[in-house]
Amino acid sequence: MNIESPKITVPKSAEELYTLLTDIKNFEKLMPDNISKFEVLSDKRFLFALKGMPEIVLELKESTPHSKVVLGAASDKLPFTLTANLDALGEQTDAQLQFEGSFNPMMAMMVKGPITNFIGTLVEKMKNL
């Protein structure tokens, strides 16, 4: 299952946005209002939970300076990645999130709406980091 957020323009340089996104404690500022738990587990791993949803542990899997940050599920139960693609525009950056997950069709149907809303919130809040 692939879901892409709308592309947005963030009023920060690609280097600045990349630095913010690779510091995982900043993801707390990107979380939706219905977050019930956020905990930094290490410099590359954090746990979060939204109300009514199970806890998810994400870890920094890969990063390409100033252009890409990849977070992935720390558990093999729900294998997915969340990639932030950054495109430098001088003092601004075009940013887009891409979610890729391997789910059975029933699970995909259940999670598509909430995940679409979730990545939409993350990308919109990026403007305010």
UniProtKB/TrEMBL annotation:
InterPro entries referenced in this protein's UniProt entry, alphabetically: START-like_dom_sf (IPR023393)
Name listed for the protein in its UniProt record: Orotate phosphoribosyltransferase
Organism in which the protein naturally occurs: Imtechella halotolerans K1
Taxon lineage: Bacteria, Pseudomonadati, Bacteroidota, Flavobacteriia, Flavobacteriales
